[in-house]
């Protein structure tokens, strides 16, 4: 199959603002799926509400556009009922770690096999540029005109602490790395979290004088380093990219099947 076979061309052009990084994520994800040679019928995409959630409308997979913050809950139900399917859950700041934070923690704790792609643009883009749990201290937003006083989550550390067995981070500048990490996350047999630093020039860039899309992506190039780089020791403010966690633990659906088998044996 070609890349075009995985998209719904009739819904293009997309609704994202000029310069938004979400289209880059869509491109990289489609290329990752294409490299795996996966059938469209093998994939289910589940999304919630927000700019990032609109990705589910552009892919020609089985897809479900659900309610705000509950994408992982719906995805869990799908995976439990059809464990043979590959479930991909694209989320933004709110879906993943604000209203959806509780579901995120427990999906990681259970180690249910699905791929959570967290598009971190550090702001709520669809509803007017409010600050989010990922905005970070001192960031400006429509609801923080004098600077945000909340400290942001570190998605990688939070995911690892909650029990995710694959945790990685990259940016929309590093497109080849992004596609490779999406591929690795899909292949992992457990709960996979991939944080993608993605630009929102319309709100975050404007409120924080971070420039337009090319300037924001240039920042990703200059202010991120590979995991384990010596540059991180020299400048602790640099953000690490790459795989932080990759380990094997019992996967939830497989363990649940064992429980069913034990019960059936007991009854016979």
From TrEMBL:
<dbReference type="InterPro" id="IPR051457">
    <property type="entry name" value="2-oxoacid:Fd_oxidoreductase"/>
</dbReference>
<dbReference type="GO" id="GO:0045333">
    <property type="term" value="P:cellular respiration"/>
</dbReference>
<dbReference type="GO" id="GO:0047553">
    <property type="term" value="F:2-oxoglutarate synthase activity"/>
</dbReference>
<dbReference type="GO" id="GO:0030976">
    <property type="term" value="F:thiamine pyrophosphate binding"/>
</dbReference>
<keyword id="KW-0560">Oxidoreductase</keyword>
<dbReference type="GO" id="GO:0044281">
    <property type="term" value="P:small molecule metabolic process"/>
</dbReference>
<dbReference type="Pfam" id="PF02775">
    <property type="entry name" value="TPP_enzyme_C"/>
</dbReference>
<dbReference type="InterPro" id="IPR011766">
    <property type="entry name" value="TPP_enzyme_TPP-bd"/>
</dbReference>
<dbReference type="InterPro" id="IPR029061">
    <property type="entry name" value="THDP-binding"/>
</dbReference>
<feature type="domain" description="Thiamine pyrophosphate enzyme TPP-binding">
    <location>
        <begin position="49"/>
        <end position="196"/>
    </location>
</feature>
<protein>
    <submittedName>
        <fullName>2-oxoglutarate ferredoxin oxidoreductase subunit beta</fullName>
        <ecNumber>1.2.7.11</ecNumber>
        <ecNumber>1.2.7.3</ecNumber>
    </submittedName>
</protein>
């Amino acid at each position: 199959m070609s890349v075009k076979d995985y998209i719904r061309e009739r819904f293009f052009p997309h609704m994202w603002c000029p310069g938004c990084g979400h289209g880059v994520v869509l491109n990289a994800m489609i290329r990752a799926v294409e490299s795996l040679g996966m059938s469209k019928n093998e994939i289910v995409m589940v999304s919630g509400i927000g700019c990032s959630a609109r990705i589910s409308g552009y892919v020609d997979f089985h897809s479900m556009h659900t309610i705000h913050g509950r994408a992982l809950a719906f995805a869990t139900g799908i995976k439990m009922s059809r464990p043979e399917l590959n479930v991909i859950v694209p989320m933004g700041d709110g879906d993943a770690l604000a209203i959806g934070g509780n579901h995120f923690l427990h999906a990681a704790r259970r180690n249910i096999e699905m791929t959570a792609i967290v598009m971190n643009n550090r702001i709520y883009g669809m509803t007017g540029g409010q600050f989010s749990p990922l905005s970070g201290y001192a960031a400006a937003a429509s609801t923080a005109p004098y600077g945000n006083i909340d400290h942001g989550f570190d998605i990688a550390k939070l995911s690892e602490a909650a029990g995710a067995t694959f945790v990685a981070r990259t940016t929309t500048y590093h497109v080849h790395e992004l596609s490779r990490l999406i591929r690795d996350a899909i292949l992992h047999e457990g709960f996979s979290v991939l944080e993608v630093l993605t630009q929102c020039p319309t709100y975050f860039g404007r409120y924080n004088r971070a420039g337009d899309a090319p300037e924001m992506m240039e920042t990703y190039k200059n202010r991120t380093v590979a995991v384990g780089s010596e540059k991180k020791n020299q400048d602790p403010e640099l953000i690490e990219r790459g795989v932080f966690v990759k380990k094997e633990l019992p996967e939830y659906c497989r363990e649940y099947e064992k429980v069913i088998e034990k019960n059936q044996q007991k009854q016979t």
